[in-house]
Amino acid sequence: MTARQALSLLETEGVVYRRPPRGTFVAEPRVRFHIGSFSEEVSRLGRHPAAKLLWAEHQEPTPSVRLALELDDGAAVHVFHRLRTVDDVPFALETTFLPADLTPGILDLADEGSLWATLRDRYGIELSRSTAVLESIVLDDSSSAQLNVRPGSAGTLLTRTTFGADGRRVEFARDVYRADRASFEVSVDLS
Predict the structure, then answer these.
(1) CA angle 13-95-65, nearest 5°?
(2) For all residues of the chain together, what is the average pLDDT?
């Protein structure tokens, strides 16, 4: 009984993971992210990032997306929903909203990499800052299946808004990370 409780505690802390009926295994170390480009952060660590596009659409934004991007009535967005991997291991589900007037034709691109690089290289948008809110969540069945974890596993919801050099909001994202594989480093300049 004590060993089972200890293993359950280690599992909730992300130190081990269970694969019934095969057993309990030591977990890989977490990837430490800064708030920013997934591709750039993973590459910085010497690992291989990838993106699998699950769907992309031109949409009328919901009220919350309209508010987050400070869009006028009648404005549209381009939405990307992608599975992000590190060394072929599922890490995150990203849903990214971009103002359609800033990104004409972006849905036609076969984007498998960094959307931030696309914004810079193809659209000439200089990114100046990004703000994010992190929340602990319980993964639903669909997210759990896509991220290859047990239903009800812990996750981290990162809600991010990115600003261009002119101060305009150019991206709003809701990213769901596996809590057992990702950690986030936040630093503040106190000078």
Answers:
(1) 115
(2) 88
